[in-house]
């Protein structure tokens, strides 16, 4: 019979509490926005005491930062995996872009969270900066490094091209899903991805 030590139980319980708090925080941020969310509301939504929330997170901004970083890490791994990107550019770029857009478009919580983040960025610019640091920067660096590793593409500025690539996907997601524009500007994601891949791989020819 496997024996479980008290310390292991405490660590497991602590991890569970953090997850409860993060889930409660997401629920409250989506419902009330950043300004309208308090640590009291998070504690109630998470089903834990306020003291428990503060034992894991110093303040609301720290809680929001951890939530962003956790989401960013999860989404990054779903799109890129945990190993360096390898393969032919036309295949890698198409498959990566497809996974990224599918993930963004199908995750309704992601759309709602983007609306909150954009809406609150004017009053709380530091929140938007947390998102840029945790979500956008690692993606740009990964794409830029991959493009730079393929000189056959003859890309003069891989870093700027990575921004164009990601910017295209984010713009499409925001106009179609976040801003409810898919009935006004109907277009399938395949068309955007195929056109973007063609421009990068074939240099517009």
What value does the average pLDDT take?
89
> What is the CATH C level class of the largest domain, in words?
Mainly Alpha
What's the total helix number? 9
At CATH level 2, the architecture of the largest domain is Orthogonal Bundle
* Poorly predicted sequence stretches spanning 5 or more consecutive residues: 1-6
Total strand segments: 0
CATH topology of the largest domain: Tetracycline Repressor, domain 2
Biggest pleated sheet = none
- Shape descriptor: elongated
CATH superfamily of the largest domain: Tetracycline Repressor, domain 2
Distance between the termini: 67 Å
What's the number of domains? 2
| Percentage of residues in DSSP E strands | under 5%
* Helix-strand sequence: HHHHHHHHH
- Whole-angstrom Rg: 20 Å
Structural class: mainly alpha
Helix content: over 70%
Provide structural commentary.
It is a single chain. With 205 residues, the protein is mainly alpha-helical. The protein contains nine helices and no strands. Helix 1 packs across helix 2, helix 2 crosses helix 3 and helix 4 packs across helix 5.
């Amino acid at each position: 019979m496997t024996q479980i030590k008290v310390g292991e139980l405490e660590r497991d319980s602590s991890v569970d509490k953090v997850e409860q708090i993060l889930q409660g925080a997401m629920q409250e941020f989506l419902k009330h926005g950043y300004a309208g969310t308090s640590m009291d509301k998070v504690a109630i939504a998470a089903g834990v005491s306020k003291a428990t929330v503060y034992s894991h997170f110093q303040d609301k901004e720290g809680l929001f930062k951890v939530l962003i970083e956790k989401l960013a890490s999860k989404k990054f791994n779903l799109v890129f995996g945990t190993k360096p990107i390898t393969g032919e550019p036309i295949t890698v770029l198409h498959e990566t872009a497809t996974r990224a857009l599918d993930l963004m478009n199908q995750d309704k919580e992601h759309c709602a969270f983007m609306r909150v983040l954009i809406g609150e960025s004017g009053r709380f610019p530091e929140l938007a900066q947390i998102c840029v640091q945790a979500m956008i920067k690692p993606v740009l660096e990964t794409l830029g490094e991959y493009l730079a590793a393929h000189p056959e593409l003859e890309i003069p500025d891989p870093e700027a091209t990575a921004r164009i690539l990601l910017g295209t996907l984010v713009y499409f997601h925001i106009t179609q899903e976040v801003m409810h524009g898919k009935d006004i500007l109907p277009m399938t994601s395949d068309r955007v991805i195929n056109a973007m891949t063609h421009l990068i791989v074939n240099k517009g020819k």
